[in-house]
Amino acid sequence: MVERLEDEKVDAVAPVAGRPWHAHHGLRIGIVSSALILPLAFFLALRPTSARAAWAEFARIIEAKGGLAGAPPTASSEEFSKHLTESVADLGAQEQAELLVEETANHYDGSIGELSSRMDSWRGRLTMSPRLTGLLESALNSNDLRVRAAAVQMELVAYNLPATQQSADALVERIETDPAGRPWALWMLGAIGNRGIEPERAFDILSIYSHDPDEKVRFWAVEGLSLLGTDATIQSLLEIFRNDPSLVVRERAGCGLAQSGMLTKEQRLTAVPTLLKYGEDPSLDSNTRNWVYQALRNITGARYGTNAADWREWWAENAPR
């Protein structure tokens, strides 16, 4: 199932002290060059860049349970027209996929349905081209969790991984036996778990590897946990955010709690009491403490600074009942 990529690996990029966070999906670090090999392009394309929109703009929009408080913001009212639907049928599989992912990322009405209805017909016919990689980057960083979910499903389709137990078994085997392919498989295990395939097993395995001695392995296990998006991932991400020895891994755990991945706002709010405690912890390093307050702003939409008392007072008045 996963033989299409043989040498998937990427180095985690250490953050610059004090630099701001940006959204994901996901999640993506670095700039993708079409000259890079496919696996490296895949991983670097999945991570945040400094050009991405600030998380604070997204956090005010995401609603509990994956919905939205209102329609996603667009420059104009868009609709996936009948004419465009007919035009898609005349394209090849790769062009269809790229067009529909683009329209989905741009919030065209009806585009998610069009994309979902055609995915199965594309299995085994797609390549992770630079264009498709970039479009999936945009979709995985959407302010709409429905778009993110469609992008996760498209990742599975592009790599010809059906959402089945057999695919999960193949990923687990690769994680356990292939160090070079482990980062890719950890990310994909989170993706397939998010689609409902053995999420508890995925959580257990990702949790184990989130404590691996190798920083890169821990980084991608954290990304997998963020993508998995189950309730159980909250506590794991909180512990990693507080305790991992690597600054870059702590940052990714904070990003997963605050904005990236597939957690809903309702789930993220459950992390707030612990984050408030972290903000008052004198043993916390300055970077992580700043990330704590940024995470609180992203999750809640409140615009306080780094005064713990202000946050405690706000939470006392606004905590979900």
Describe the structure.
This protein has 321 residues and is an all-alpha fold. It has a single domain, classed as Leucine-rich Repeat Variant, CATH 1.25.10.10. Helices cover 56% and strands 0% of the residues. It is built from 17 helices and no strands. It has helices spanning 38-45, 55-59, 82-88, 93-105, 111-118, 130-140, 145-158, 165-177, 182-194, 199-209, 215-228, 232-243, 247-258, 265-269, 272-279, 286-300, 308-318. Helix 9 (182-194) runs parallel beside helix 11 (215-228), helix 12 runs antiparallel to helix 13 and helix 13 (247-258) packs parallel to helix 16. The relative contact order is 0.13.
Number of helices: 17
**Which class best fits the helix and strand makeup?**
mainly alpha
Oligomer: single chain
Q: Which CATH class? A: Mainly Alpha
Sketch the topology as an H/E string, one letter per element: HHHHHHHHHHHHHHHHH
Dominant shape: globular
How many strand elements?
0
Average predicted local confidence, pLDDT: 81
Helix coverage percent? 55-70%
CATH superfamily: Leucine-rich Repeat Variant
Distance between the termini: 45 Å
Short key terms for the protein model shown above:
321 residues
Map the helices and strands.
Blueprint: H1 38-45, H2 55-59, H3 82-88, H4 93-105, H5 111-118, H6 130-140, H7 145-158, H8 165-177, H9 182-194, H10 199-209, H11 215-228, H12 232-243, H13 247-258, H14 265-269, H15 272-279, H16 286-300, H17 308-318
Helix pairs in contact: 4-5, 4-6, 6-7, 7-9, 8-9, 9-10, 9-11, 10-11, 11-12, 11-13, 12-13, 13-16, 15-16, 15-17
